Structures are given as structure tokens and as C-alpha cells.
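Hi Y.,

Following your request, here is the sequence exactly as I used it, all 93 residues.
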Amino acid sequence: MTVAEFRASATPPPGVSPALSALWQAAHGDWDRAHEFAQADRTADGSWVHAYLHRQEGDTGNAGYWYSRAGKSMPASSLDEEWAAIAKELLAR
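Below is the corresponding structure, written out as C-alpha cells. Let me know if you'd prefer a different format.
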């Protein structure tokens, strides 16, 4: 599945990880549901999406904590670019 197909899907594709489900929810405007998925995912991928969500809401302090948990640095890219980069990496696994 491509990033474009993932973003355009009407529902989260079956069998995707909780981190990808969170990312899909974020792309479709449900930040609260996305946060629930990311918060429940205790993996580095979940932490990465969790960081993205807090960056999206403008809480860079909290985002920094979650980037650290994910082993990532806070990017200088736009939120859209970061969303696509996360989706691309997670879909490739």
C-alpha cells in the first residue's frame, strides 16, 4: 500500500499496527482517537506517532519527550511532510 492509498482509504486498513491506526486517525481529523491509539501503543513506533501528535497540537515540550522515547529527533519539516515520512516508513515494514 502506498502512502497516498493509505491516506485516501475510507477506514484504517485491516491489520495495520496501532501506530498506523493512530496516524490514519490523525490524517482524518480525529486527534483524540489518534492519541488514544498512540498512547496505548508502547512501542517506539507508537511513541513516534505520539510525538507527532503533540507536535501537531503545538505542545513541543511533550512532543520532545515522546521523540526521545522513540529514539528520534524533532524534525524541522512540516507536519504534512512528517506525517508522510512516518507513514512511508511504517507501511514499508
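Residues 17-91 form one domain.

Thanks again,
Q.
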